[in-house]
């Protein structure tokens, strides 16, 4: 069964196919409004996310399909101790496709292994949120026609910004991408992304201390919200705040065809005086997310009958237990541990993708 | 963009058009059941109201349309600090029309200025609930054929009763209306409505101490619930309670064609022994609300492309800040202060319609 | 108005008709996908139950109908003191059929007496959950072709297990049923079911101390969850736990065509190693529940116009009050007491079916 857990589940050709479908939907909506007649999407939102849930629901309705679901974690079956595996299987009896948001890393993979229908990860803990990346990609594609050779600035919380990591993962497939990383030192992009993703893909990057400094060279500026809680020194927060806030004044230094993205919600990191600027694409980004979800639903339903490979545990990983406390394997009955073995002898949990290092032969408990 | 914030946004001709459409829907439902095929209504209920929300959802489904939405204030984007303006704009990307209920006065106007699609005020704080008034108007229209010359009794909480104020506002357009105001002294109709609305419209009114005293002359009796918390002296509450309770015995004193309305929910101010009386119209009122919402949705969608005027601040009001703590301008980023200047030199907040009096030249902070 | 409050509201012929319809839906889904076009189901879930609610919603959507509803008890009208009778009547203005779950025993009957449209009991307190029984019946019917002569094992919490009681009630109509009751002594099947239902119907039963002991003779094994809170002696719980847990090892002792049912959610009373066994029917049971709800919706809508008898109070019961604190008559305005008189002089509350014994002539308050 084909599901979408991580943006890298889609090949570059599949991504291009989704973007072309989305553009066709934008151009000819009437040809798509009956495609999912008689089909149902279940939105299972164990934690609330109004924007994402409504985007999926709007997408399915615009395809002529139906929607069922729940939108908070207080569902009785969960509180009665039902496993996520069972819940996924039961919901798979009611719908043709599932979109799920869950607070635990790796929950989407676990659910997809049991649902019996295609499953779209709408956000699993701090792990992935691939459909946001689809919205981001389409926005750049519509503005720029492609990705090769772009200079992309990332601003704000690059340490915890899940959408930043995922967008970088997606960009890694293209050529000659330059990135400019604009963040407070405390929130800079993690090393493992620089070395493990960007360097490996031939992406070059530089760090910049402020938007103003970086903006003249950017083709794309990807803004993110800095959550105050994440920024340790609140005095420091106020001082640096301005360097990471975009306003109309700073937009004067940008290229005439630069585009500004933000996964939203934005608080004050983009001043409202930027909104009328045609380079501000963050609300078009919202619509693009809906169109890409429509394309994705069609794609997954078309492949629904196909056999998916079921993930298997690396033989050498027998007995290992994921150390990430937020991984779905903690506290979920029926979630067998699954690892892949890396070239350097470490193991990666297939659910949450955190790394586990063990001494040869030593098992942790 | 045409929206419905306050009942007075609709001209008398438009109101009549809505009522005629509603009557046609009642007579020929089959002609309307596909009118909104492919369209979507978003119900944004920041505070719960099952009756109103389900009425809107039923209305849209009976037009062949789809519904998305949320029904409580615990939506993640709000808790992440997103402005109401942004939320409205995002939801406007997912739906063709919005019905919104919000706890702050004036929230509906602010949202309508940003949504990009028609917005229906389903209740904004203590300010307005225009679609309840539409239900009330249709109920009287179907029973009486029109409004001129009617004697309308209002009973219960006339001080805080938002639906009472709105219905009076609507009746003000008609001729020779007499009203009888039946309430405890603590909950009588505010002066500003008597002088500012009723007197100005040529409506006459008298106060009555009990239903029994007033009922023989009434064409319409509009009952409202008295919330115990509002009634200061709880001993006084018990004593006076009976004077404002309607039962079958008192109905004997009423005209044979009087109609009884109540916006519901009713607690004990209408005894259940009134329910079988054909003059009891409060459940038909529920259905009329649904039909009027259907007519309203069709009306607003038909005019969706038209340019709405964007409200502008009176020049003399520069720097003024609304003093109503429950106004949406308090605590909402991006809600610019907007006032109109009144003939007597005071200002009225365009959002919540509370008045602001300032000394000439003095600005409050 | 025909509603479904208790499984016994359906005659054996009607039950068979529902099962035949469900089987036809399974075989020819395309013939049913437009049957409820233009109709609406309202799901009123005063307490959450994701599985049951989503099953009803999926059922209505697969019939081409629409769904409105609420899924928690925090609906404003209820908190404003509206009676359940009024709520039911209002919702009956918005939908063609209602499925309701409520925490009070007897709530479904009260609502059905006021709704004006067919009402399906989706669970009223500890009283009934008839559509679960429909799912159970269809599962056995599809596996066995009928019910006569079956040996059915019930395992787990037979004292509080509402679905067990209801399934036994349904089986009572068939011939030569043998039951094996497998439970801890603290949770055994109540006497009134043994004498009042099983004995009266000619069903024979025996008690068994463990699954292992009973499984070789079973045609059907109906598993239920034992809630730890119900089991007084937690030490005793651990000791006995294994006797009431089903696993693949114990399945080796079962007939090759035995079927395993469970109303779900299951926690650990069925080991996941049973799931691949073709005799494990509990997930097919989920789908059967949806198909039976589809058949039930069609059946009730087809009979919606018919006059239902309105329950009346036995003359001798005048002044009596139901003693069950969880009965909906406690605390609900407008819920008139209704009893039937039994042969032995006791009375049964028509809402919650609890018995009231009074001395001749003595009324309780």
Q: How would you portray this structure in words?
A:
The structure is a homotrimer. In chain A, about 35% of the residues lie in helices and about 15% in strands. Chain A is of the alpha/beta class and about 375 residues long. Chain A has three domains: about 5-130 and about 285-300, 3-Layer(aba) Sandwich (Rossmann fold), CATH 3.40.50; about 130-280, Aspartate/ornithine carbamoyltransferase (Rossmann fold); about 315-365, SH3 type barrels, CATH 2.30.30. A five-stranded parallel sheet of chain A has the order 7-6-5-8-9. In chain A, strand 1, helix 2 and strand 2 (about 65-70) form a beta-alpha-beta unit. In chain A, helix 1 (about 10-25) packs across helix 12 (about 280-300) and helix 2 (about 50-60) crosses helix 12 (about 280-300). The interface of A and B includes residues 33, 55, 71, 72 and 286 of A.
List the SSEs and their pairings.
The structure is a homotrimer of 365-residue chains.
Chain A: H1 12-27, E1 40-45, H2 50-62, E2 66-70, H3 76-79, H4 84-91, E3 97-102, H5 107-112, E4 119-124, H6 130-144, E5 151-155, H7 162-171, E6 178-182, H8 191-201, E7 204-208, H9 211-214, E8 220-223, H10 234-241, H11 248-251, E9 259-261, H12 282-302, E10 339-341, E11 347-349, E12 355-356
Parallel strand pairs in A: 1-2, 1-3, 3-4, 5-6, 5-8, 6-7, 8-9
Antiparallel strand pairs in A: 10-11, 11-12
